[in-house]
């Protein structure tokens, strides 16, 4: 991997010397630090004689995987030493081209040691942990997919936050009024489509700066939903009782060990989510529609010359993105909790955007990135419940800090679609 | 990465004498026209929202066919009462005017923060977090130390500005070094700031002795901004600071080399680089200055207004108002000050409006969002009112996801 050049107007290197990256030093050092923290906090700092049990199975599973019991202190020390060794090796140049992978492995071992330490003297359900991760990642994945659809067509979508919030509000209101959660789901998606159309009109027709346009939508959404919630919902509380979706399972498949309860017993949202991951990947990369959308986002002029209607494609993509974001919004009021609260999305739309960037504007990448964020949130929740000495605010900061780290490209540079953010002018 | 619509009017030679003056006035009028219309339209749409969310008025509309005048009258009534209450509690008396000016002060500083960043091509949404950090630093210096006023007050003010500046500089540094877009990093820093405030207010160092709720000890007398009064109009010295800052920002942007560098970077980073300017350093400096101004906004509030204590409310304090003020003022310091006054009116009046009618304060947020919308999309306002674009109405804000 060549070193990144930041001066675009400088002369190219005079000789044919390949510049080898020195990133492995930084990552190696970071890995060593991680290992030291593991060793000290989760190993040496852990009380002796306590065991941690990792539970992998639920009683309903067809095949029972035995629990894994490890001494908490020993695990911490062992893993700490392993991670330090990995970091040291990386710093000296071993596997320098795979520095991300090595750091990732080190991070994973760090988390395992953390879990062992947090669960010392008790047990922790791994399936529960992953289930919680998938649950918390749902709005992030849907938000990221909304962003994906818009940005792949060349329209920056900062308004994911506003779309989520509006979807949540509309779903709560209509589901409460109609007494049916599906009505809420549908109208939440419809609200998302409208906002997407609005974003489209602002960016495509009026060529407003897309970041300002998105921010305006966010502010408008926050103001309108807060105002209407205060006005309408407090006066008619029955309008804020939308009910929720219940989880259901696919018989047979849900009894598979590990993956069973995770993938096959959920609310409709998880199933839709998984369908979207596959669907978007296949749609964007294996169909004509996907090719057209991507071409409009990379080089609209060329797409135009070939006869693709750039404006219509962008409008369609933005509205589709809005629908997905609206769907994500309904999750807040129809699944996570039942009822709307002011500003209940609390920045998740921006984290979803970060997941999109982290995932390099690819559906599977965005999904994995959102899972990582969901995991950090779930971890924070577990650690608070397990009454660890780490202050809860610090834990709550984790997703935001991780987002900054991601956006700063500390996990590799991410390239946006080439025409992302540029208004297209037909000639 | 292109900028937003930049309209330049038809080329024509500058006419001389009286004709030039008339031209200049016409230009000024046209420049003010869009923001003025934006304001009026936003208030109008806000009025519509008020009408259609008031149950009594909606009842009247239900019987529109049998009594059309009744419905219209009820609508007019509810909107007029709301807005009249709004203006009464902000401009209706000397003490109300004083309250308005007190609200204007931090808005002006925060608006200048965003405007300065805009001119350098950066979108500083992190104002809210910078305000929190500024207020925290100023507040801490204010209540933790006991020094003579001549030292204490300037130290506290400086601490607040420095706090906000450093917080924003993080985002500037990230953009300079890694290209991380400041929109995301500042928003994330906002949340980190709020959570840090929560944590601080729970900790020993910040807790008021004898109270369990999250409120800090009050700032010492020696660190408080002196009160200024003209009859019944009571403000604090922060207002002077805001006016001074307005002049200072104008001077830096229009009359100093640094300002020239920042404006060039904002207009065309490649040209700036070609001219030998360090764009990276420019980003850090611009964000630092912007953060300092936002930090001052938090500072003047904690050092100037009762209860002179740090509470959790500081993160809801500014919100997105700063952006609205900067956009309405079109990135021009004097315009920002005027826009801040307008928003001060809206803010000071909103609590009175909620008390008199039952219109929730959140309608202000709606009006603000609409103002931003119309100012950011002048084409929308022009389309609505069929106005033609004036001479040289250039407006360029931020660009795409950045290098």
Derived structural class of chain B: mainly alpha
Give the terminus-to-terminus CA distance of chain B: 8 Å
Uncertain segments of chain A are 1-8
The helix tally of chain A amounts to: 16
Element string of chain B (H = helix, E = strand): HHHHHHHEEHHHHHHHH
Query: Rg of chain B to the nearest angstrom?
Result: 23 Å
Q: Kindly, what is the distance between the CA atoms of the first and last residues of chain A, rounded to a whole number of angstroms?
A: 40 Å
Largest sheet of chain A: 3 strands, mixed
Name the helix and strand elements of chain A from N-terminus to C-terminus, one letter apiece: HEEHHEHHHHEHEHHHHHHHH
What would the principal axes of the Cα set say about the shape of chain A? globular
Strand order of the largest sheet of chain A: 2-1-3
**Overall pLDDT score of chain A:** 82
Strand content of chain B: under 5%
- Count interface residues per chain for the largest interface: A-B, 53 and 58 residues
Proportion of residues in β-strands of chain A:
under 5%
Detailed description of the structure:
Chain A has 16 helices and five strands. Chain A has helices at 23-44, 72-91, 99-118, 126-152, 160-178, 181-205, 210-235, 259-264, 268-286, 288-298, 300-305, 310-336, 348-358, 363-385, 392-396, 398-407; strands spanning 51-55, 68-71, 123-125, 248-249, 265-266. In chain A, α1 packs antiparallel against α2, α4 (126-152) runs antiparallel to α12 (310-336) and α9 (268-286) packs across α10 (288-298). The radius of gyration of chain A is 24 Å and the shape is globular. The two termini of chain A are 40 Å apart. Chain B is mainly alpha-helical and 403 residues long. Chain B has 15 helices and two strands. At the A-B interface, α7, α13, α15 and α16 of A face α6, α7, α10, α12 and α14 of B.
């Amino acid at each position: 991997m060549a070193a990144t050049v930041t001066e675009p107007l400088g002369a190219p290197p005079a000789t044919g010397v390949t510049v080898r990256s020195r990133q492995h030093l930084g990552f190696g050092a970071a890995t060593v630090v991680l290992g030291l923290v593991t060793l000290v906090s989760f190993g040496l700092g852990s009380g002796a004689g306590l065991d941690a049990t990792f539970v992998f199975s639920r009683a309903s599973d067809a095949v029972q995987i035995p629990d894994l019991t490890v001494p908490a202190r020993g695990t911490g020390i062992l893993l700490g030493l392993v991670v330090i060794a990995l970091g040291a090796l990386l710093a000296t140049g071993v596997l320098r081209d795979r520095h991300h992978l090595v750091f990732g492995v080190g991070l994973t071992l760090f988390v395992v040691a953390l879990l062992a330490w947090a669960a010392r003297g008790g047990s922790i359900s791994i399936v529960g942990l992953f289930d919680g991760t998938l649950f918390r990642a749902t709005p992030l994945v849907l938000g990221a997919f909304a962003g994906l659809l818009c940005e792949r067509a060349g329209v920056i979508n900062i308004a994911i936050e506003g779309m989520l919030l509006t979807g949540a509000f509309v779903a709560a209101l209509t589901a409460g009024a109609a007494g049916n959660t599906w009505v809420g789901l549908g109208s939440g998606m419809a609200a998302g489509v409208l906002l997407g159309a609005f974003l489209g009109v602002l960016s495509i027709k009026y060529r407003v700066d897309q970041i300002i346009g998105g921010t305006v939508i966010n502010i408008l959404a926050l103001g309108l939903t807060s105002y209407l919630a205060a006005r309408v919902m407090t006066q008619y509380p029955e309008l804020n009782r939308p009910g929720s979706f219940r989880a259901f399972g696919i018989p047979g498949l849900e009894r598979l060990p590990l993956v069973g309860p995770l993938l096959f017993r959920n609310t409709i949202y998880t199933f839709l989510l998984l369908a979207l991951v596959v669907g978007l990947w296949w749609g964007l990369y294996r169909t004509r529609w996907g090719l057209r959308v991507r071409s409009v986002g990379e080089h609209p002029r060329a797409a135009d010359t070939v006869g693709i209607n750039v404006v219509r494609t962008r409008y369609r993509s933005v509205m589709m993105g809005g629908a997905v974001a609206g769907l994500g919004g309904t999750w807040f009021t129809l699944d996570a909790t039942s009822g709307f609260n002011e500003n209940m999305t609390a920045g998740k739309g921006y984290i979803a955007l970060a997941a999109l960037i982290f995932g390099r504007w690819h559906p599977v990448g965005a999904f994995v990135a959102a899972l990582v964020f969901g995991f950090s949130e779930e971890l924070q929740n577990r650690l608070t419940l397990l009454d660890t000495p780490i202050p809860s605010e610090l834990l709550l900061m984790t997703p935001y800090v991780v987002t900054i780290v991601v956006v700063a490209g500390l996990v590799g540079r991410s390239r946006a679609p080439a025409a992302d953010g540029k208004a297209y002018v037909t000639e | 990465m292109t900028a937003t619509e930049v309209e330049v009017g038809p080329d024509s030679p500058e006419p001389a004498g009286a004709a030039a003056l008339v031209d200049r006035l016409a230009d000024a009028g046209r420049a003010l026209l869009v923001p003025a219309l934006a304001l009026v339209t936003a208030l109008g749409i806000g009025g519509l929202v008020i009408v259609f969310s008031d149950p009594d008025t909606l009842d009247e509309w239900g019987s529109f066919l049998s009594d059309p005048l009744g419905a219209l009258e009820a609508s007019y009534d509810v909107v007029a009462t709301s807005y009249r209450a709004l203006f009464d509690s902000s401009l209706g008396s000397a003490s109300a005017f004083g309250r308005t000016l007190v609200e204007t002060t931090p808005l002006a500083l925060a608006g200048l923060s965003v405007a300065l960043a805009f001119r350098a091509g950066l979108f500083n949404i992190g104002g809210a977090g910078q305000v929190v950090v500024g207020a925290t630093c100023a507040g801490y210096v204010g209540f933790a130390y006991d020094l003579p006023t001549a030292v204490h007050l300037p130290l506290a003010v400086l601490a607040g500005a420095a706090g906000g500046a450093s917080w924003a500089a993080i985002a500037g540094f990230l953009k300079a070094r890694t290209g991380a877009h400041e929109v995301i990093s500042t928003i994330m820093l906002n949340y980190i700031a709020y959570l840090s405030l929560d944590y601080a207010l729970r900790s020993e160092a910040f807790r008021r002795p004898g109270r369990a709720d999250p409120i800090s000890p009050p700032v010492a007398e020696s660190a408080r901004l002196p009160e200024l009064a003209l009859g019944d109009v009571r403000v604090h010295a922060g207002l002077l600071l805001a006016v001074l800052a307005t002049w200072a920002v104008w001077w830096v942007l229009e009359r100093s080399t640094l300002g020239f560098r920042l404006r060039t970077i904002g207009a065309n980073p490649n040209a700036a680089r070609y001219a030998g300017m360090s764009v990276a350093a420019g980003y850090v400096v611009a964000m630092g200055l912007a953060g300092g101004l936002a930090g001052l906004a938090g500072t003047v509030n904690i050092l100037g207004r009762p209860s002179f204590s740090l509470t959790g409310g500081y993160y809801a304090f500014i919100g997105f108002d700063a952006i609205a003020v900067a956009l309405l003022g079109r990135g021009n310091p004097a315009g920002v000050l005027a826009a801040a006054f307008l928003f001060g009116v809206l803010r000071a009046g909103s609590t009175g409006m909620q008390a008199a009618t039952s219109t929730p304060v959140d309608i202000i947020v709606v009006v603000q969002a609409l103002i931003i919308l119309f100012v950011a999309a002048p084409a929308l306002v022009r389309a609505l009112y069929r106005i033609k674009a004036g001479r040289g109405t250039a407006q360029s804000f931020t660009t795409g996801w950045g290098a």
